[in-house]
Amino acid sequence: NSLTLLDLRDNQLETVPEELSQLEVLVRLELSHNKLSALPSTLGPALQHISLNNNNFEVMPPALCSLRSLQTLDLRENRLTSLGELPCCLQSLVVDDNKLTTLHLENHQALTAVTCTNNVLTSCRVGNLPQLKVLSVRINKLEFLEPILNCPELGEILVGKNFINNLDFVVPCGATLTVLDCSDNKISALPESITSMSKLKRLDVSNNNLNNLPPQLALMDNLNSLAVEGNPLRAIRREIIAKGTVAIKEYLQLKLAPEDLEQDGPTIPDIQPDEIMMQTKTLEVDRKTAIPNDVWDQAVVCAIVRLSMQYCGLTVIPEQVINLRTCLQELELGSNNLHQLPPEIGKLVKLRKLNLLNNNLKELPEEFSSLVALEDLNLGQNKFDSIPECLYGLPAICNLIVSNNQLRSVEPAKLMTMTSLVCLDLENNNIGRLPPELSLIPNLRTLLVMGNTFKIPRADVLAKGSAEVIAWLKNKVPQP
To answer: Rounded to an integer, what is the distance from CA 77 to the centroid of its chain?
Structure first.
């Protein structure tokens, strides 16, 4: 009971004894390069690291799931066709060189790194992984990835050598990315939001179908490695591309429009930062009708990420709010008297959450479509008679609340383009018919529709909750 490391690598083992479960303080187990296809039904409870690479496993050994201390698991170069349930505290998962067709990882609180290179993946869904830092699914058969949601620590995404044709999946996690490798795919355009990925250091889009590059890439100060060779770029000469990142960015700088060259944010006041505001990155001025200039100056100096101005009697959005465009991520403007939003709202490109509950809005400006990082939008208790067109092009929206308005109908074909949409609240409107096609919104999990004028589905179906409503609607979708 004093054994902490057992190294049985590079043998011809086909089985290992059941007595492994009696090694109560065993921390590391090395079984790579054998001929194993199964493990004992129970293993040592203290195991933290297991290496099983280069064996003959076709399924995840069930005994692994019960190991509550397991942190790293290496299953490279086996014959896995599917992953079972993962251990609850697993931090690192390596399953390169297997035969996996799907990778669906959600709601694992400890997972920090996943590498699933050189498999045959055709489906990849990753989300709600609060500690995930690295995701590698290179050399697979992916044509698209579902949007990567609620992974606030994700820094590296490696998806090279697949068949992916767009980068919409990366938009929700773009603010934290430092490395994005999309080489050897079929990408024909870079999303506008890529230029707002301020932490991005390395971008590899070589060997794709890009015809041009956004000039705004030149303004990405942290971007020090940009690989674009192997694309049909018509405007950039080969000799410029051959000189590397610096030359490419210098060329793109020359192509910038005058407005792109304007200073990105306001002049930073030369004042001592407020200690509390600097720590919380928050300014709350609810129920105040006048905010002194020195408070706004502090908001700029402290680069706040959250601003709450609820119950302030606002009829227009103060220009000082727009001055926070380089840092603001959450904006609470509920319970004011806003009748319209200014076009400048589109400059708040880092916004992730916007609350406009209980105002008098009937429409949104076209510039709203620039808010490509927006995930949560509350338009409840306004005067919209339809869902604004500018919302359909926003790739990151997860939660959309349009309850207590005057909606008469919804257009499922347009809503289906919102591939990140998880929650849609349409309660208390005037919707006369609930289209079954709403059930086809790709990632929809919550659909709230009570308090409308439609008669079908009946109230007893609605009372059973979103899952039942979505299932009912899916059953009513006309078959081709």
So the answer is: 29
Q: How much is the pLDDT for 148?
A: 86
Q: How far is CA 33 from the centre of its chain?
A: 37
Nearest Cα to 387, choosing from 367, 359, 361?
361
Write phi, then psi, for 287 (nearest 5 degrees): 65, 15
Asked whether the beta carbons of 70 and 64 are under 8 A apart, the reply is yes
**What's the rounded Cα separation, in Å, for the pair 476 and 37?**
45
CA distances from residue 258 to 215, 229, 255 in whole angstroms, order as listed: 12, 28, 9
Instruction: Tell me the C-alpha distance between 460 and 368, whole Å.
Output: 38
For the stretch 220-229, contacts whose Cβ atoms lie closer than 8 Å and that sit 24 or more positions apart, written own/partner, are 220/195, 222/178, 222/198, 223/249, 225/201, 226/202, 227/183, 227/203
pLDDT tens string 6-39? 999 999 999 999 988 899 999 999 999 999 999 9
Q: How far is CA 416 from the centre of its chain?
A: 18
d(CA 374, CA 376): 6
Long-range contacts of 3-7 (CB under 8 A, 24+ apart): 4/28, 5/30, 6/30
CB-based contacts of 22: which residues, under 8 Å, 6+ apart?
44
Which stretches in the chain have pLDDT values below 50? 263
Which of 224, 231, 220 has its CA nearest to residue 183?
231
Q: What is the pLDDT of residue 267?
A: 65
Given a contact cutoff of 8 angstroms between Cβ atoms, the answer to whether 217 and 192 are in contact is: no
Q: Is 203 helix (H, G, I), strand (E, B) or coil?
A: strand
Give the pLDDT of residue 471: 94
| Secondary structure of residue 29 in the 3-state scheme | strand
Tokens describing residue 222: 């942290």
Tell me the whole-structure pTM to 2 decimals.
Answer: 0.62
Tell me what pLDDT residue 197 has: 83
In this structure, the number of other CB atoms found within 10 A of the CB of residue 304 comes to 21
Copy the structure tokens of residue 143. 């044509």
Provide DSSP, 366-423.
GGGGG-TT--EEE--SS--SS--GGGTT-TT--EEE--SS------HHHHTT-TT--E
Please enumerate in sequence order all residues whose Cβ is within 8 A of that of 421, keeping only pairs 6 or more positions apart, or say none.
397, 398, 400, 415, 441, 442, 443, 444
The reply to whether omega before 457 is within 30° of 0 (cis) is: yes
Give whole-number Cα distances, 139 to 17, 185, 209, 382, 440, in Å: 36, 10, 18, 48, 29
Residues facing 284 on adjacent strands: 308
218's CB contacts (< 8 A; 6+ apart) are 249, 250, 252, 253, 255, 256
